[in-house]
Structure formats: structure tokens, C-alpha cells
Please model this.
Amino acid sequence: MKFATFTAIVSSLAVASAYPITGDVVNCRTGPGTSYDIKKTYKEGHDVKLTCQTPGEVINGVKLWDKTSDGCYVSDYYVKTGTSDYVVAKCGGSSGGGSCSAPKVNQDTIDLITDFEGFEDGKIYIDPTGNPTVGYGHLCSNSKCTDVKYPIPLSKTDGKKLLAEDLKPKEKCLTNMTNDKVTLNLNQYGALVSWVFNMGCGQAEDSTLIKRLNNGESASKVIAEELPKWVYGKQNGQSVKLPGLVRRRNAEVDLAKTATSAKALPVKC
Model:
């Protein structure tokens, strides 16, 4: 009888750890906010298992975000947990998704990004991978860039403001996807933020580069070996090596090799 009771309790806990999605199509993101990249989507009624929860961008009055077993974040507004409070442990440590303050990149990083992104007179243009873009490489949510709060054509001043906003989630997701084994100076960190900004948090998080860093390998070695591999993009439905990406990766590696005493990672939470 005691064994049966114990089994029933375990079964009920297993069921309680999965919660249904309430929105029609809900995006699961690489961090706790809508500015983070979409990693996957869930349909209404899909059960998600939660590993931890963390504060993030407020969605319809709800500040809490749920990290699912897929390793991405959904606003708790779209998850039927039955409460506005925590139902699992709070996310913590370097993979906590919001518990650490990310370092800001230095001016050398800003200069590198603006040089490669270009400005295009502040008008909307299509980047080499076919995405509508404006300012210093801001990827728009649609062809008219209605997600941009500044007037278009953008002024260079507004373009730089938009770039600073775009870099914040990239700084955050790079910080959160690395563990305490990763030691980066500010130039190495800036080189990787430029890469994440260019390629996206989702691709970066799943990369061999980040896995090697988290395994404790030398940052200088890993960056020099892995960054040059990220030079391919889609053209006419085919994967091709893009000269612009080759130049950018070379510049990022050069920045990472530039000596500096300024430390970036790890950060103390």
C-alpha cells in the first residue's frame, strides 16, 4: 500500500511538471524577452516541461518567463501554470537567462559592427541573406520595419541608438550561454558579440564554438579556429561562402587577438 501511494505521488508530480500552452502559436526564445531570437514555436495545447523560471520583459502584465526543457524561454502569460508565482526553481548561475548583468561591448566593437553593417542612407534594404534591414544591421520584423520606433529613413544618430538597443540582448545571451569556465577579455567578448549579432543567438548557442569554450578550452584558440567557419549564407536557396562574411570573421579574429587588460567574462551574478 505504501509503495502504491508513493508511485501515485511520483506520477502526479510528473504530470504537474508539464503545462499547456494557451496561445495559438507561441514563440520560444533564446532569452526572456521578445528581442531575443526565436528558437522554436509551440502550438496551443502543447505541453511544455519547465526547468526554471526568471523575470524578464513584461508581457500583458506578466513579468515571469518560463525556461522549457527545449532550452528556450516562453512568457508565463502563455503557459497555464495556474499561478502568477514560481512553480519551479528560479533560474540561476551563468545559464539563468536574466540573473547576470551582461558587460557592455567597447568602442572598438561598435566600430567593427558599424563598419561591416553599413548605413545605406537610413533606408530599408535587403541583406545578403534576404532579410529586410535598416540602420546598422537591424533585422526588421517585416518589409516595412514597423517594429522600429525611430522615423525612417533613419538618421545616423537614431541608427546608433537602435544599434545599442539591438546589442543589449546579444550581450545578454552571450553572457548567459557561457559558463564560469569561460574567461574572455573585452576584445574577445566584443568579437563574439559581433558574431552573435550577425548570426543570431540560437545558432551561436548550439555552436561548437560555445561548446568548446564551455568545456574550458583556450578562448584565443577556439575563436581563431571556429569563427572563420561562419562565412556561409543562403543565396538562391543554396549555401555559399560570402566574401563579406569572410572579411567580417577575419576582423573579429583580429579584434579578439588584440591585447587588453579589460576583463569581460565570467561575471559575478
Q: What stands out?
A: Residues 2-78 form a domain with the SH3 type barrels. fold (CATH 2.30.30). The first strand starts at residue 18 and ends at 20. Residues 1-16, 93-99 have pLDDT under 50 and may be disordered.
